[in-house]
Amino acid sequence: MKLFGGFKKKKKKSEEKNIQTKKIEAKKPEVKAKKTIGRESEKVSLQKEKKKFEEVQLILKAPHITEKATELNKEKFYLFKVIPKANKIEIKKAVESLYKVKVEKVRIVWIPKKKKGRASLAGFKKGYKKAIVKLKPGQKIEIMSR
């Protein structure tokens, strides 16, 4: 390998320093000062809140109101119909952000489709995913029926 190294041009030390400083300068990002106006920042925050609300609305379909659900409300359990792809963490964040409460535990139940129909008109009632949310002590949600 020494044979091939002998044919290379030798660089001066000053050239090597210039090359190193150019590499360092190229790596430094330029920092630009941002000018924000009060109204623009308010618009941005409102847009973020609106986006969060839309995301929550996509996860939680509706509160599940039945006789059994109203009895569970006394024990700090609340039932919601949710989208099939939602997981426990997403449901917890959605309930906390929408109702401004602290969630202790989330359980998920799949309700299967049910066969319905008469004589020749047979079909199925859709299945759905249901979330049972338990709140921390001292928390409460006001759920109104439709």
TrEMBL record:
It comes from Candidatus Nealsonbacteria bacterium CG02_land_8_20_14_3_00_34_20. Keywords: Ribonucleoprotein, Ribosomal protein, RNA-binding, rRNA-binding. Residues 13-22 have a biased composition (Basic and acidic residues). One of its GO terms (molecular function) is rRNA binding. GO terms for cellular component: ribonucleoprotein complex; ribosome. The gene is rplW. PROSITE patterns: RIBOSOMAL_L23. Part of the 50S ribosomal subunit. Contacts protein L29, and trigger factor when it is bound to the ribosome. One of the early assembly proteins it binds 23S rRNA. One of the proteins that surrounds the polypeptide exit tunnel on the outside of the ribosome. Forms the main docking site for trigger factor binding to the ribosome. It holds the Pfam family Ribosomal_L23. Residues 1-22 are annotated as: Disordered. The keyword NADP does not apply. It comes from the Bacteria. Belongs to the universal ribosomal protein uL23 family. This is Large ribosomal subunit protein uL23. The lineage of its organism: Bacteria, Candidatus Nealsoniibacteriota. GO terms for biological process: translation. InterPro entries: Nucleotide-bd_a/b_plait_sf (IPR012677), Ribosomal_uL23-like (IPR013025), Ribosomal_uL23/eL15/eS24_sf (IPR012678), Ribosomal_uL23_CS (IPR001014). The keyword RNA-binding applies.
